[in-house]
Amino acid sequence: MERSVTQDRKSPDVRNVGISKDETSCALLDPKPSIPKAGLSIIAASFAGGQASVTWSIFTAPLTKAGVDLGPSALLNDDSNVLSRLSETWHIRQTSLSPHILPPSSIIHRPGMRNLSLVSNYTHQLALQAYTHVRNNCTLLTLGGDHSLAIGSVAGVAKAIREATGVALGVVWVDAHADINTPESSLSGNVHGMPVAFLTGIARGAERKPGDGRTSKTPFDWLEDTHRVDVSKLVYIGLRDVDEAEKQILQQCGAKMFGMAEVKNRGIASIISRALEYLGPDTPLHLSFDIDALDPTIAPSTGTPVSRGLSLWEGRYIASELAKTERLVAMDLVEVNPLESVDGDGPKKTVTAACEIIEAALGERSHVSS
Question: Residue 15 pLDDT > 50, yes or no?
């Protein structure tokens, strides 16, 4: 489905492009020395730029929809948080990456894409971090944030895996939405509905006209072939709200899809078995999990909930079966929005469900995938 944003809430300060020197080094979090540990790097990706327009003036910061950028802090600071669930299994190294204001002179606009320069700059920085962590033989967990950040996390992991192993990364995209709109097909221009299109090369960045006087690269020019995901190494699970334009793109590119109707008809065990068989027995895996893949009765606090989604058991099963392959090298958990709630319990329910998915993927592992 086309992801759009209509709510207008006061947003926290989501600014700061790049990474300071002290942010690039990961802090080791007090593991118990008696327990065998392996390296898990967690990036708190507090980013909302892929889901709303940015308003600029000499007086104001960019304004985005509030909430989804608070997802990482909710997941890390909740009573039953990610750190407490994983600290018995892993040496955890935690870092963060926050966006900041780009000077208006550096902004490039393109019809059909909001926040083009902001998203490109942020995802490039995230890709550099992801690449470094995986090349250092760490398993990576990226906490979002909106799903546009996966352009960075998946691209960085894909490049690291290619260099380390010589093979292509497999991506399991668990989501209610296909996220494969292009700037030409998108109705909203929100880039969190386009990450798969950029990762596969179906979509490209802005183009500069010859003689415009600028010499720097255009947004998303940083994406190279080594960052790309081959469509033959991509599997969708949980789709149930796909735009007509996206359906055409999916048909043309031949992506492997398991929609919710098929999940309910065949059962999740059969779906995962078929997905892993399709990706191949030696393929390193990246799980990109949008919390809206779950039914809104389980995870209501997200920006674009869609009814009749995965049960929590099904979501956990997907994660645990990927972990059992011992080839899960990275995971994203995105689109938790603590400010989106139809009742007072919504944020707590959503954060708890997200933590359970993460625990199923990473909580019982005592090794580093290579």
Answer: no
Mean pLDDT, residues 121-138: 95
Radius of gyration of the chain (CA): 19
Q: Identify whether 192 is a catalytic site residue.
A: yes
- Express the helix, strand and coil content of the chain in percent, nearest 5 each: 35, 15, 50
Determine the Cα–Cα distance for residues 219 and 196; give it in Å rounded to an integer.
16
Q: Is 290 labeled as catalytic in the residue annotation?
A: yes
Which residue among 69, 78, 175, 332 is the active-site one? Answer: 175
The distance in angstroms from the start CA to the end CA of the chain is 35
Active-site residue (options: 295, 335, 340, 356) = 335
292 assigned to active site: yes
Contact of 85 with 110, CB cutoff 8 Å: no
Note whether 51 and 148 are within 8 A (CB): yes
The catalytic residue among 292, 321, 332, 359 is: 292
pLDDT digits (tens, 9 = 90+) for 155-204: 999 999 999 999 999 999 999 999 999 988 988 888 899 999 999 999 87
The pTM assigned to this predicted structure is: 0.85
What letter would DSSP give residue 113?
Answer: B
Annotated active-site residue 184? The verdict is no
d(CA 129, CA 326): 23
Look-up: residue for tokens 């690449």?
131
- In the numeric block, the tokens 């709303």 are attached to 52
Which residue of the set 147, 227, 243, 359 is catalytic? 147
From 91, 124, 133, 192, active-site residue: 192
Q: How many CB atoms lie within 10 A of CB 9?
A: 12
- Does residue 179 carry a catalytic annotation? yes
